[in-house]
């Protein structure tokens, strides 16, 4: 169906730049061209060297938080510090060795766990000293028991 308020269309005319159906106006006189040239691309501007860059997207991170949701290195506990404290209750020598290694790593990396490593060392050394004392007492009991001979004369 056609609209009666519109002028008739000439099917033989194929020029899309003319708006007037009669063809009396010159091509392109009051009508913009059907296709425009593309706009020039917009390139991002970069900050001057030495200035801090703003976050690329999203809200700026809160103070002390990593912007991508990962833990900061100083928020992690040193694994050797945990091993030192746990092994202090079972094998004191392992606690002392891993405690010293953990304290060295904590000083270099800034991780958490200095107190765990310290307590692992304290309990490890205490366990070693206690073990040595018990060993001397056990040896003394064995030597004193061997020195006394019991003879049953009946």
TrEMBL record:
The chain crosses the membrane at residues 79-102, 114-147. The keyword ATP-binding does not apply. InterPro entries: DUF4190 (IPR025241). Keywords: Membrane, Transmembrane, Transmembrane helix. Residues 1-10 have a biased composition (Pro residues). It comes from the Bacteria. Residues 79-133 form the DUF4190 domain. The keyword Chaperone does not apply. This is DUF4190 domain-containing protein. It comes from Cryobacterium glaciale.
């Amino acid at each position: 169906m056609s609209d009666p308020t519109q002028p008739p269309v000439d099917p033989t005319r194929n020029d899309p730049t003319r708006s007037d159906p009669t063809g009396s106006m010159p091509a392109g006189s009051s009508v913009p061209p059907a296709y425009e040239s593309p706009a020039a691309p917009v390139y991002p501007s970069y900050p001057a060297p030495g200035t801090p860059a703003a976050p690329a997207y999203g809200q700026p991170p809160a103070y002390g938080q990593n912007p991508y949701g990962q833990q900061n290195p100083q928020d992690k506990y040193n694994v050797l510090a945990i091993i030192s404290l746990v092994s202090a209750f079972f094998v004191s020598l392992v606690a002392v060795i891993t405690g010293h290694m953990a304290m060295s790593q904590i000083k270099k990396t800034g991780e958490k766990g200095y107190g765990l490593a310290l307590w692992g060392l304290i309990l490890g050394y205490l366990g070693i000293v206690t073990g040595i004392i018990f060993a001397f007492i056990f040896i003394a009991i064995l030597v004193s028991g061997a020195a006394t001979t019991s003879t049953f004369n009946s």
